[in-house]
Amino acid sequence: MLSWNVEEERCRIYDKMSACMECHGIDLEKFYNNPSYFGRGAMGSVIPWKGRHPSLVHWPLIGYAGGVALRDALTGCTRSIESIAGGECLQWVKPENWHSTVFSPVHSSNPEVIAAVKTDFADSARVEALAAQPYVLTFTRLIVTDDGGFVAAGYANNVQLDSLRERLLQSLLSDYARDGIHPRYEIRLPDKIHITLGHLVKPVERHVEDQLTGFARQFRDDGTVLGQLSVDFLTYAMYHAPFLEMRIEEIFRCQLGAPAVPSRP
User: Fold this and answer.
1) 79: exposed, middle or buried (C-beta count within 10 Å: 0-12, 13-18, 19+)?
2) What is the per-residue pLDDT across 213-237, written as a single tens digit (0 to 9) for each?
């Protein structure tokens, strides 16, 4: 197993996510009221947004050294969760679309929000990938969020990922400034390393929440390595919503420290 370390700031973020769910329980209304994922119909019905936008992602997981083992471990976690909550209350993202985002210019699936943002950052992705060196991601957490989500979270073994994210953000902001445009929506720098596995879609009883808390708590000390990815390439891809039916469509791959490799037609 490759060496790894617990990054203190990310550890605090993950602890806060876990503590929030443990203290307040799961509130599915918080999920369905998230304007990044859902809109409302004329009669108040929930409508999943179906927008799409480019993202730079760690994907496909099985393309990395360690990826198959990580996928299998995460699949085992979903089965354990399903045995607790019951399949009828859950919706899983298809494993072939599991990914961890490096950078995205927009964090919404609302087509109107996407249309108001400069989403094409392909040139920056190519340039900045050349300046990055390989790194290792170690996933040690399975977190149940307070809105009913299930995410695997982890750490990087060096500063390459954070530096790349910062350079991509600054490049995007420079493009806005050059064009004399003030972004209408906040452009956030990602602070986590995570993979969305799925979500509760129906409420569960309190004792089920308690069992889910107990299951996730075994990962709180970062002592269990779910898997590692040796990252030597990134994928510039089109992210397709809805959120729970997310799909990743490759546009091109960037070898870290090497020129971008076009996808096959």
Assistant:
1) exposed
2) 999 999 999 999 999 999 999 999 9
| Residues 169, 264 contacting (CB under 8 angstroms) | no
How many structural domains does the chain have?
1
**Dihedrals phi, psi of 183, to nearest 5 degrees:** -55, 130
Q: Is residue 2 part of a domain?
A: no
Euclidean distance between the first and the last CA atom of the chain, given in angstroms as a whole number: 36
Query: pTM, whole model, 2 decimals?
Result: 0.93
Backbone angles phi, psi at 179, to 5 degrees: -90, 0
Half-sphere exposure in the Cβ direction for 153 (13 Å, CA):
28
Q: Which of 189, 94, 87, 212 is nearest to 142 (CA)?
A: 212
Q: Are 146 and 28 in contact (CB under 8 A)?
A: no
Does residue 39 lie in a domain region? yes
The span from the CA of 80 to the CA of 71, in Å, is 14
* 230 in a structural domain: yes
CATH code assigned at 29 = 3.90.1140.10
Cα distances (Å, whole numbers) of residue 58 to 67, 70, 92, 95, 236: 10, 13, 19, 13, 9
- Tell me the C-alpha distance between 22 and 16, whole Å: 10
CB 151 within 8 A of CB 145: yes
As a whole number of angstroms, the distance between CA 122 and CA 129 comes to 11
Q: Are the C-beta atoms of 224 and 90 separated by less than 8 Å?
A: no
Q: How far is CA 123 from the centre of its chain?
A: 22
Specify the higher pLDDT residue, 31 or 186: 31
Contact 91, 199 (CB under 8 A): yes
Q: What is the pLDDT of residues 179-203, one digit of tens each?
A: 776 666 667 788 999 999 999 999 9
The boundaries of the domain holding residue 30 are 8-262
The verdict on residue 122 lying in a domain is: yes
